Amino acid sequence: MKGINLGKINTMTVVKSVDFGMYLDGGDEGEILLPTRYVPEGCKPGDVLDVFVYLDQDERPIATTLTPKAMVGEFAYLEVAWVNKFGAFLDWGLMKDLFCPFREQKMRMIKGNSYIVHVHLDKESYRIVASAKVEHYLSDEMPSYHHGAQVDLLVWQKTDLGFKVIVDNKFGGLVYKDQVFQYLHTGDRLKGYVSNVRPDGKLDISLQPSSKKRTKEFADTLLEYLNENNGYCNLGDKSDVEEIYERFEVSKKTFKKGVGDLYKKHLITLEEGGKGIKLVDK
User: Fold this and answer.
1) Which domains, from first to last, does the chain contain?
2) How far apart are CA 115 and CA 167, in angstroms?
């Protein structure tokens, strides 16, 4: 659709006010309505607004100042609001739900359940639609990440090997189960780190930075914790993995390396039996 980016945020100028809203300059597409409920207070002709443009019930372009849960070209975890004989309709944060036709479903979607989908423009109808066939929309380019690069993750699905993730809204990746030290669920969004780029372009992902960087970061965190807690931490070598993770969100291996780093620098002392840590100057 020339003149506007359908399914994305557009910067548009208000051209006139009417009883039911404001009309915006849509370029070659003509004027596009911004209904009254979305018009910012004090808005007047000549103002420039950032709006999301999609299609109304009559398949005409319409604008809103709301931001949907996903735009064209993005992956998201969306709940099914209702289903009819044509497909499922997903709640993406706008008045008109997002359509996912049956042909784009791996299995029949159920009202109330949520699914990872990709949002795109249908080539035939030019409508904004969703697809649960996620793998069809992942990039087949070879990623150019360096080892340890920080990336954004969307948890896709659990497998026998670990968790499939979508990396930076573009690539497929895997977090191996022995790298998971926290509860993960489909739809979770979190940071991760590239540990390996495989020959097939898939990415191996860690949920924690490289060992050396992670040790330094945790050592700094532990030092800050000690300073804020009267120079004492009641965790040590003998503490449970779960207890350490609950307190600091790191593995026991990282905890021990961080403690060792501070001990070598003579900043802490260790209680006998590995039951606690004390700051030297406290």
Assistant:
1) 9-64 (2.40.50.140), 75-136 (2.40.50.140), 150-206 (2.40.50.140), 211-279 (1.10.10.10)
2) 17
